[in-house]
Amino acid sequence: MVSEPGEDMSESIAMPAAGAVEAEPTGPVVEAHELTRRYGEGDTAVDALRGVSLEVARGKLTAVMGPSGSGKSTLMHILAALDTPTSGYVVLAGTRLGDLSDTEITKLRRKHIGFVFQFFNLLPMLTAEENILLPLTIAGEKPEKEWFEGLLKTVGLTDRRSHRPAELSGGQQQRVAIARALVSQPTVVFADEPTGNLDSKTSGEILELMRHSVDSYGQTTMMVTHDPRAAAIADRILFLADGLIVRDLPRSEPSAVIAAMDELTGD
Ligand code: ADP
To answer: Which of 209, 214, 210 is nearest to 224 (CA)?
Structure first.
């Protein structure tokens, strides 16, 4: 069982339920329409996505699973406007991404997207607090003080705020990265293998934190994972194989996730 820092999470932030999103009350937050992504050309071309359509529900945690090379990261990067599809398109928070200029994409990402990486991607010279605030600092904004202190408490970093990443454990660094993704209350948080570089106990704590941000803030989240235990905290699990969505499960026990993966890989 996971103990700190989840225990005091529920009362730690007075967060309006609709705070994570703007005034779009219904409908999917992210839509993908017939996405394809080809890397390279000619004989060596790789079709990483071969026609993926999906809708991501507001205020839910969606997991994406699939064998290595099935296209999970490619899909996440395209949905998060970090990459563009070869064909097809994405609608994020009501905006069709392909129609935007670079400046508009930057603005859209700043406002609507938080990203959590497997290897944390923190800036080593900045403190935990400065790393968390970076998305706002870049935008020339400051957080509401009470909200920010609540966020620090939620992620269990109140007494580590002045530490630099090198002075923090892997789990603490990922907490910083999660807080950085949450700080601007984006429309959707994408997490690419957020526990992939952490031990089992720390992974459990990070998963609890991800789940908490969905339950308490209504933070729409999409997470790529290899780990059936991680997928089992999701409200929905999409399975990719060879660039296609081949299975779509509701919330499931780890054993059901493992069975579905075994079916895919033929084990
Ligand atoms: P996953 O995240 O499921 O492991 P990826 O999306 O990383 O899958 O990769 C899907 C396929 O696309 C794989 O065959 C991979 O080798 C290929 N691929 C990914 N990125 C590139 C790239 N930048 N250049 C060429 N091929 C790539």
So the answer is: 210
